[in-house]
Structure formats: structure tokens, C-alpha cells
Amino acid sequence: MTPEQKLSALLSAAARPEPQGFAFSALLAQRIARRRALYRLLALVPLAAAAASVLWTLDSVLKHQTVETGTFEPLAPGLLALVLALATAFGGRLLARVIARR
To answer: Is the torsion defined by CA of 30, 35, 41, 47 positive or negative?
Structure first.
């Protein structure tokens, strides 16, 4: 076969694949959406662990203050831990969105 014949055989209508059905396209889109959701959840795991450790620290600080003094007078460390936990949670959501867009 000459190169022209090979090219015409390659580009002929008989060599073209049949178009894909709508069911296949929907199944493929569903699989992609599930994979993206899984990646979003996996991106949140380290940040959730960091937030849990901060909240655990906050819990021990607040218990220590209420047992010793009976009041919530020196709350600066606890409030700082709460702010850090909230910042970690919101940062995790933002990071998950950025990762999901890739």
C-alpha cells in the first residue's frame, strides 16, 4: 500500500469508531464526580486531624481553668486555640476547593 492509500484507509468512514451512547457518557461523568469527591475528602483528613488536636488542647485548657479557679478568668490560651481551630477548618475547606479544581 502506498502512503496515500494508508491515509485514506485510516480516515475512511469504516475505520471511525461509533459514537458513544449517552448512558456511557453519564456513567463516565458519574465516576469522575465520585473520584473528585473522594479527593476532596482525602484532602480534608490532615486538616481535620490538626483541628482535632487543637480542639483537644482547648478542652484540656478549659478543664484546667475551671477545676483550679472555678471561673474562666485566663481564657487567652483557650481563645487562641479556638481561633486557630476555626482558621484551620476554614483553611481546610479552601484548600479542598483549590485541590478539587485541579
So the answer is: negative
**Residue 19 corresponds to which cell in the numbers above?**
459514537
Q: Which residues contact 14 (CB under 8 A, 6 or more apart)?
A: none
Sequence-separated (6 or more) residues with CB below 8 Å from residue 82: 58
Specify whether the CB–CB gap between 47 and 98 falls below 8 A.
no
Contacts of 84 (CB under 8 A, 6+ apart): 54
Indicate the length of the chain as a whole number. Answer: 102
List pLDDT tens digits, range 26-71.
899 999 999 998 988 888 888 888 878 877 877 776 676 655 666 6
Helices (H) and strands (E) counted in the chain, each on its own, are 3, 0
Distance CA 39, CA 18 (A): 33
User: Residue 79: what residue type?
Assistant: L
